[in-house]
Amino acid sequence: MNCKGIIFDLDGVICSTDKYHYLAWKQMADSIGVYFDENINNRLRGVSRMESLEIILEKYNGNLSQEEKQELAEKKNEIYRELLKQMTTKDLTKEVKETLDKLRGSGKKLAIGSSSKNAKFILRQIGLGDYFDAVSDGTNITKSKPAPEVFIKAAEYLALNSEECLVVEDAKAGIIAAHDGGFKSAGIGEAAVSEFVTYPLETFSDLLKI
Ligand code: B16
Ligand code: MG
Asked: The whole model's pTM is what?
């Protein structure tokens, strides 16, 4: 791999917080009687909290004020953060940690590029609080994926340009963001079948074969 930096998505790539997003949104959806399932949850990957709520509310019959929507999003986040508290270093797989260490050992700079405002909290929970050279997340962007802003900021923090970095993603929205920002990408799961993906991966450690 001839890139100088690698920018990793968090949720669904470094760790499986996607299951906690599902549980928290499900509890919120049930509280207002709106239908929600795993397929809808998949559409929320990489998308910001408020945009995720709007997708869920496509199935809601009724009108909610901006204030009420804000409250629902906050309620979901409270449930989500309670679930995140259960996370420990055991939620970082050996495969992910060893792959990250090997990439770092080969001289790559490593960053996070996540839409989540909880990214730093999650990184601390799984023992990677001080691991990355840079963290670009939901707290430093104005537009979430598929806008490329989060990755452009990550590259800036690494003092590299887009062409020098590879983005690793699990969401199609993230692959589009990488493509539009001028980055090469590696995709896992649904991202591996995106028409814009540069390197489809079967598993995280396949990064070492690129
Ligand atoms: P929060 P990623 C994204 O993380 C999640 O995939 C997406 O489902 C979530 O809505 C978004 O973060 C915002 O998260 O509510 O914690 O700010 O995949 O970009 O790491
Ligand atoms: Mg993700």
From this structure: 0.95
